[in-house]
Amino acid sequence: MKLVSRTLSLLVMTGIAVFFMGCDGGGGEDKTQQEKQLIKLNSTWALSKVNNDGTDRNDFLNIKLEITGTYAQDGTYNYKFASGGTLPNPSPWPKYGTWKFGANPLTEIIRDPVSSSSTNPNSEIDMNYEVTDTQLIITFVIPDGSLGWAGGATRAKAVKGNWRFEFTKQQ
Questions:
Q1: For residues 88 and 155, what is the distance between their CA atoms, to the nearest angstrom?
Q2: Is 33-169 assigned to CATH 2.60.40?
Q3: Considering the entire predicted model, what is its pTM?
Q4: Whole-angstrom Cα distance, residue 168 to residue 137?
Q5: Which of 73-77, 91-95, 146-150 has the highest mean pLDDT?
Q6: Share of the chain above pLDDT 70, in %
Q7: CB-based contacts of 64: which residues, under 8 Å, 6+ apart?
């Protein structure tokens, strides 16, 4: 009887030990909203559709948006637009720059935030975004009077207005 009792006790103790070995101790911090969103955004995105003030634009050819960066609280990250493609001239996007999360990191980013090292203090653009595992949609407004940024084609077109860019995640 003692043998059965000891064996049963040993099995229960072993089971408890195995269960707790699978736990991380509860001391790990959860990722912040910014960190979770950065993980989703860090990728290469192929441009699938562009709309400016209700008109589809077909002059953005083979464009890719590369978003890169390592998480830092309230950090600034990098982007490269037009990777391997051609932008209209002028363009509502610079070819590369920096960005950071806005007040709501789930839906807002600031492209080319003004800093002490900014070469163009008028380049800051508030943007809204939606991101899933496979799609990124970015919307923003370029105010009247903006000159835009140099593109890659010779066609000149105003950059002002409401913009919507839809991207598909590259594998």
A1: 6
A2: no
A3: 0.76
A4: 9
A5: 73-77
A6: 71
A7: 44, 45, 46, 47, 82, 83, 84, 85, 170
Q: Is the peptide bond before 105 cis (omega within 30 degrees of 0)?
A: no
Tokens of 159: 């950059």
What residue ranges do the domains of the chain occupy? 33-169
Amino acid at site 110: I
Q: In this predicted model, what pLDDT tens digit does every residue of 111-126 receive, in sequence order?
A: 988 764 555 555 789 9
Following DSSP, what letter does each residue of 105-141 receive, concatenated?
TTTEEEES---TT-S-TT--EEEEEEE-SSEEEEEEE
- C-alpha span between 120 and 137 (Å, rounded): 25
> What per-residue confidence (pLDDT) applies to 123?
73
φ/ψ (deg, to 5) at 146 = -70, 140
Q: How many other C-beta atoms lie within 10 A of the C-beta of residue 23?
A: 7
Q: How far apart are CA 110 and CA 50, in angstroms?
A: 19
The alpha helices in the chain, defined as continuous H runs, are 2-21, 33-41
Q: Give the H or E element holding residue 98.
A: strand 96-101
- Average pLDDT over all residues of the chain: 82
- Tokens representing residue 51 in the block: 């709309």
3-state secondary structure of 2: helix
Instruction: Report phi then psi at 142, rounded to 5.
Output: -100, 120
